[in-house]
Design goal:
The complex is a heterodimer of chains A (260) and B (170). Chain A has 260 residues and is mostly helical. Helices cover 71% and strands 9% of the residues of chain A. Chain A has helices at 2-30, 35-48, 88-104, 108-119, 126-143, 148-170, 175-195, 202-210, 216-227, 231-259; strands spanning 53-59, 62-69, 73-80. Chain A has a 3-stranded antiparallel beta sheet with strand order 1-2-3, with helices on one face. Chain B has one domain (2-137). Helix content of chain B is 87%, strand content 0%. The chains are: A mainly alpha (260), B mainly alpha (170). At the A-B interface, helix 3, helix 5, helix 8, helix 9 and helix 10 of A face helix 1, helix 4, helix 5 and helix 6 of B.
Chain lengths: 260, 170
C-alpha cells in the first residue's frame, strides 16, 4: 500500500517536471531556437530531475517526449506548437534557465515561476521599432547599391509598412496574405516614388524593403537542418520559406502590373 | 574604396536594425552588429583572392561562425544569437527576390539560373557554419583529450618520483 502511494507521488513529480520541460521547450521553439537545441535542453532537464531515459522528437510545430524511470515506468506528453518568431533575448534567458535547472535542480514549481517571469519580457518599445523599420531598409538599400535618395524613400516606406504590419498582426491576418499585402504596399510605394522623381531605382528600394520580410534566415536554417540530419524540420522550413518568398515577390510584381 | 566603406557602414546599420528586431539586448547588440560588419569586410577582402562568390560566402560564413562561437563562449549565450545577426548581410535576400521576380514574370530560364545560384549561396552559408562548428568541436575535444593525457602523464611521473624517494628512504 505504502509502496503504491510513493509510486503515485513519483509519477506526479515526473509529470510535473516533464510539463515544465515541455513549457521551456515550447517557449524556446517560439523564440526561434533550433530544433536540436530544444531537444537537447528537454533531455538535459528531464535527466537532471531524475529520468533514466528521455526520448525527444521535435519539429518546428510539435514536440513529443517520453521519459522512463524505475519509480514511474514511463510517461509521455506531447505539445502542439503554434506561432514562431525570433526573440533572442528570451532565448538567451531560457537557455540560462535550463542551465540553471541542470546545475541546481530547483523545485519544478520554483522553476515554473522563473519561466513565467521570462515569458513576460518585452521587446523594444513601439517607437524604437518604427525607427528600426526606417533604418534597416534604408541601410540595405544603400548596401545593395541604391542612392541616398533611394535610402530615404525606403526608410519612409518601411515606417508605413510598420503601421500596416501592426494592423495585420492585430487582426491576425493569415501569414501569406499578410506578406502579400505587405509587399503590395511596398511595391506601390517604390513605384510611386520613382514615377514622381523622388527616387532612382525601384529594384534597389524593393530589395531593401524586402529584407524586412524575406525569409532568408529560414532558408539558410533549413539547409542547415538538412545537413545536420533534421530532414523533417528542414523540409518544413524550406517549403515555408519558398512559398513566402514567392508570395512576397508576387506582391511586388502585382503592384507593378496594377500600376500600369 | 569609398563605396566599400559606405557598404560596411550600411552592413553595420542593417545588422544592428535586425539585431534589435530580434530583441537582442545590451552589449550583445553591439557585438552582433559588429559581427555583421566584420563578416562583410571579410567577404570584400576575400574578393581580392577569389572571384567565385559561392566560395567567398562559404569562407566568410566559416569565419563568422568562429567569431560567433568565441563571442558565445565569452558571454555564455547561445551561439545562434551571433550567427544569425552576423549572417544578415550575407543572407541572399536580394537574389531570392530576383529569382521569384523571374518566376512571376515567366522568365523560366533565368529563374532556374538565379534560383540555382541562390540555393548555392544559401547552401554555402549553411555548410560554412556547419564545417566550422564541427571543426571547433573536434579541436575542442582533441584539446580536452590532450590536457587530460598531460595531467595523467604528470601524475604518473610524480608517483614514479615519489616511488623513487620512497625507495631511497628505505
Amino acid at each position: 500500500m505504502h509502496e503504491n502511494a510513493s509510486r503515485l507521488d513519483a509519477r506526479d513529480y515526473a509529470s510535473d517536471y516533464l510539463y515544465l520541460a515541455l513549457n521551456i521547450g515550447e517557449q524556446m521553439l517560439i523564440s526561434g531556437a533550433e530544433v536540436w537545441r530544444v531537444e537537447d535542453s528537454i533531455r538535459r532537464i528531464c535527466r537532471a530531475y531524475g529520468a533514466v531515459r528521455v526520448d525527444v522528437f521535435s519539429i518546428t510545430s510539435s514536440i513529443v517526449v517520453t521519459i522512463y524511470g524505475p519509480e514511474f515506468s514511463s510517461l509521455t506528453q506531447t505539445r502542439r506548437i503554434s506561432g514562431s518568431g525570433t526573440d533572442m533575448h528570451r532565448l538567451d534567458r531560457l537557455n540560462q534557465l535550463s542551465r540553471d535547472i541542470c546545475s541546481r535542480v530547483p523545485d519544478p514549481v520554483e522553476a515554473a515561476r522563473e519561466l513565467e517571469k521570462i515569458q513576460t519580457t518585452k521587446s523594444y518599445p513601439l517607437i524604437v521599432q518604427f525607427f528600426i523599420y526606417a533604418i534597416s531598409p534604408a541601410a540595405f538599400t544603400v548596401f545593395f547599391g541604391g542612392t541616398w535618395r533611394d535610402a530615404a524613400v525606403a526608410g519612409v516606406i518601411g515606417m508605413i509598412l510598420k503601421v500596416l504590419e501592426q494592423l495585420l498582426n492585430r487582426y491576425e491576418v493569415n501569414a501569406f496574405l499578410s506578406a502579400f499585402l505587405f509587399s503590395l504596399l511596398g511595391g506601390f510605394g517604390a513605384i510611386f516614388a520613382v514615377k514622381h522623381g523622388l527616387a532612382d531605382s525601384m529594384d534597389k528600394i524593393s530589395i531593401g524593403v524586402i529584407m524586412l520580410r524575406i525569409p532568408g534566415i529560414a532558408l539558410t536554417n533549413s539547409i542547415r537542418d538538412f545537413f545536420s540530419g533534421d530532414t523533417m524540420t528542414g523540409l518544413l522550413r524550406f517549403l515555408e520559406a519558398a512559398l513566402l518568398s514567392m508570395t512576397i515577390a508576387f506582391g511586388f510584381v502585382a503592384a507593378d502590373v496594377i500600376w500600369r | 574604396m569609398e563605396g566599400n566603406i559606405i557598404q560596411l557602414a550600411a552592413a553595420f546599420t542593417g545588422s544592428l536594425g535586425f539585431a534589435m528586431l530580434f530583441n537582442i539586448r545590451g552589449r550583445k547588440l553591439l557585438f552582433s552588429a559588429f559581427g555583421g560588419m566584420l563578416a562583410w569586410a571579410v567577404y570584400l577582402l576575400l574578393g581580392c583572392l577569389i572571384v567565385n562568390d559561392v566560395w567567398r560566402f562559404f569562407l566568410t560564413s566559416m569565419f563568422l561562425t568562429l567569431y560567433a562561437e568565441v563571442m558565445a563562449r565569452r558571454q555564455k549565450a547561445p551561439d545562434t544569437i551571433y550567427i544569425i545577426c552576423s549572417a544578415i548581410p550575407l543572407i541572399p535576400g536580394g537574389s531570392l527576390y530576383n529569382t521569384m521576380h523571374c518566376a512571376v514574370e515567366g522568365e523560366w530560364e533565368q529563374f532556374s539560373e538565379t534560383g540555382m545560384h541562390t540555393l548555392m549561396l544559401a547552401a554555402a552559408i549553411a555548410l560554412g557554419i556547419l564545417c566550422m562548428m564541427t571543426l571547433l568541436h573536434v579541436i575542442y575535444s582533441v584539446y580536452k583529450d590532450v590536457t587530460r593525457w598531460c595531467r595523467w602523464r604528470r601524475a604518473d611521473e610524480k608517483s614514479a618520483e615519489d616511488g623513487k624517494e620512497d625507495g631511497a628512504g628505505v
